[in-house]
Structure formats: C-alpha cells, structure tokens
Design goal:
The chain is of the alpha/beta class. It has two domains: 2-253 and 460-480, Aldehyde Dehydrogenase, Chain A, domain 1 (3-Layer(aba) Sandwich), CATH 3.40.605.10; 257-442, Aldehyde Dehydrogenase, Chain A, domain 2 (3-Layer(aba) Sandwich), CATH 3.40.309.10. It is 39% helix and 23% strand. Strands 15-16-17-14-13-19-20 form a seven-stranded mixed β-sheet, with helices on both faces. Strands 10-9-8-11-12-22 form a six-stranded mixed β-sheet, with helices on both faces. Strand 4 and strand 5 form a beta hairpin. It is globular and about 75 Å long.
Amino acid sequence: MKQYRNYVAGRWLETQRQFTDINPVDGRPIAEVHEAERSHVDEAVQSGHRALAGEWGRSTPTERSALMYRIADEIERRRDDFLEAEMGDTGKPLAMVSSVDIPRGAANFRAFADLIKTAPLESYVLDLPGGDRALNYTVRKPLGVVGIISPWNLPLLLLTWKVAPAIACGNAVVAKPSEETPGTATLLAEVMDRVGMPAGAFNLVHGFGAGSTGEFITRHPDVNGITFTGESATGSAIMRAASESIKPVSFELGGKNAAIIFADCDFQKMLDGMMRAIFLNTGQVCLCTERVYVERALYASFCEALTNRVRTLKLGRPRDAGTDLGPLISGEHRDKVLGYFRLAREEGADVLVGGGVPRFSDERDGGFWLEPTVITGLAESARCVKEEIFGPICHVTPFDSEQQVVALANDSRYGLAASIWTTRLDRAHRVAEAMRTGLSWVNSWFLRDLRTPFGGAGLSGIGREGGVHSLNFYSELTNVCVRIDAG
C-alpha cells in the first residue's frame, strides 16, 4: 500500500493518524494518507517564516523563475507517475488527464515564471508647487506565508494554479490538498524536494477541513493569506476563520452556470461545445453548465440531439479505449447527486435520459458511477434549478426573447460563468456583457488565457486570479515616495 506523507520544513513526516485513499472506479483502497496534526501545521507555518527570513526571502524574480522552470521540467519528466496518481484518485479518463490536468500543472509554473519577470509596476511623477517633484514607484514584496486549500475535481491543475504565483512572488506556502485526492500533491512535494526548493518554502500537509488540517491553517494567526477553491459553504466558514486575524482571502467557489443558445447558432459546434460543458469530468467542474436555455424554435431539435449524443457516451475505466466519462469522486458525493436526481422527479422534472446508477457486472459496480442525465420541465424556482449539483446533469428550458433569457440566466445567487451561442456579433457582445458573472464565453467553453482575470460574483467567490491579478493577491504592494527638490 502506498504511503502519502506530509512534507514539512524540507523533510517527510509520518503521523499516528491515517486515512485511506479510495479509487472511485472500483471503491478499492490505493494508499494510506498521514493526517497532519495541529503541531505539524504550526511547524510548517513557522518553517515558512524562517525561509522568508533566510535564503528564500532574498531570492530574486529571476532566480525564482529559473526554479519554476525546473519544477515544470520535473513534472514532465515524471509525467507517467502524475498520470497514474491522478487517474487513481479521480477515475478520470486518460485522455483528459494527459491533455488537461498534467500539462496544465506544468504550464502554470512556466506561465507565472515568465510573468513575474515582466509584470508591470506603477510609477508616477507628481509636480509640486515651486518646481519640486515627487517620484512615486511601487515595490512588490511577498505577502508572507500563504495557506492554499485546493479541491478534488482538478487536483494538480488547481493546486499549481495557486502554488505557482505564490512562489513566483516569493511567498512560503502551506498547501493542503483535498483528502479525496492526495496523490499528485504528494508527487509535487517530491518534485519540490528534488529541484532544491529551500526548506520551508513549500510545505504539504494532508487532512480534512473542520477540526483538522484545513481549520488549523485557516485559523493560524501567523498565516498571512488564504486562497481556497471549493464549495461556497466551506468558503464562508474559512472567511469567518480568517477574519479573526484580518488576513486577505481569495475564493473560487461554486457555480450554477447557464448556457444561452440562440436559434441562429452553428448547431453542430454548439452541440459539441455543450457536451463538453455539461459532462466534462462527469460534470465535476465548477465551470460546467447545469442550466441550458434554448430559443424555442430550436428547443425540440436541441433536446433530441443532446439526448442522442448522451446515449453514446461511454462510461469506462481510465485506460479503456474510448472512455468518455469516469465515476464521481466518492460514495458520499454520489449520494448527494442521486438525492438531486430524486428531488428533480419529485419537483416534476421530465427525465429525457439517464437518472440512475449504471450496472457493469464487474469490479466497477463497487465504484461511484452515475448515468449522464438530461432533464426538462422544472419551474425556475425548483431547487434543482437553483442549487449547484456538481454532477453529470443539466436542466433544459425554452425561452422566447433575449431580454427574457438574460433575466433567467442572471436569476441566481451564483455568478461564475456563462456561455452564449449565436452567430450575431452584436447579440454576442450585448448578452456576454449583460451576464452577472466573472466570465462569459461566446461560441466556446473552458477556453482560458492564463493572463486574464478569473473569479466569480455572489456565492461564486471573492477576488480575481490569473496573470497580474494573481501576482497582486500574493504580494504586498508598497509605494515609495521620494521628494525631489527643484535645486
């Protein structure tokens, strides 16, 4: 049995308390994970401050950039190990892990390695009476020790999305991966160790949330900032904990994302895009579409075409040829999503396809599988239309006018992303800008430029990450003002 240990102050720590890492494909154990104690989290935080007071704190952007390139190279050198760990923890198809998760994990380090060397900083000259002047310029300094709590749905991608800019800015990191997906995070710690990351600059602690490692990090008075991706309710709890010591937070939380499909869209491109938007990673992506609004003239054709495409999806093992969908992450999460399937029926939904648990008559029956599902017929007030489900399901609704559908799409406490499908340029710009979301896609989905701001509104989060926005969160920006006499 594999042992996933903690990495603190440049050394590996085993602990008395352990928990089991489960493969969601068949429900079998694949590793024992060492749960960090409060004292281990405190040691990680203090080692981070020691690193900042020493060699790491004196590092330059150029030096950190070179280190980050070595990290990316080492991730790619160990590509097969990362692939196996990610598939083992999540059950994702090899095609997705090899084209998205692991390459993006390495790319995040390279992107921020480049950015930290070229990121602009402000400078101004202020004219004063009598000919004197004042020169103002900005200095970027590390925020300090940053607590990073990452989710299980895109484990390596979203962990590195936070670790990379934090390191680029010269911070020390205390990272806690989801207890569901500890594998690639542990491999990342091995990479950090191999490339020569100074002791304490990167720390990895395993565990749970409340009453465990996550709470120990968020309540620690010497942690200087918290970044978190996950459920909105957890984000609220972390915000309360962080408020005790007045530290900055950056949250990317849940979504109940809408797609708006106009009758003039390119139908085939739209259908291909919607299949990804609804079912990528078995619907377990915060950006996935759960509400689909279709112009009435296209509604019947869309429902038929989507239903037919869903019936062709292959639920299979990660390495099986042609696998489209893997399992859900855990039995607990499957029970939650199944509860919404039952609720949808109680609320009066028509189930066009899916809605149940598939049977394979092999070891997969011990895993956490669900059928991809399309429903219609619910009122906009229904819980299944209002609440995030985070599974392979969408609800399809017809609409009659642009004004009506904008109001429907915006009628949500979430505000993460939207996608608009139309060939009319004026409508595309108008509707995209009208969305109360952090991100609006037009004729695309999950197309990301890492330099652009990313984040949500409402229950979908606080702050923006990406490009210089990430650098600014992980930095203390200090203004230096120098008075220059006229002489």
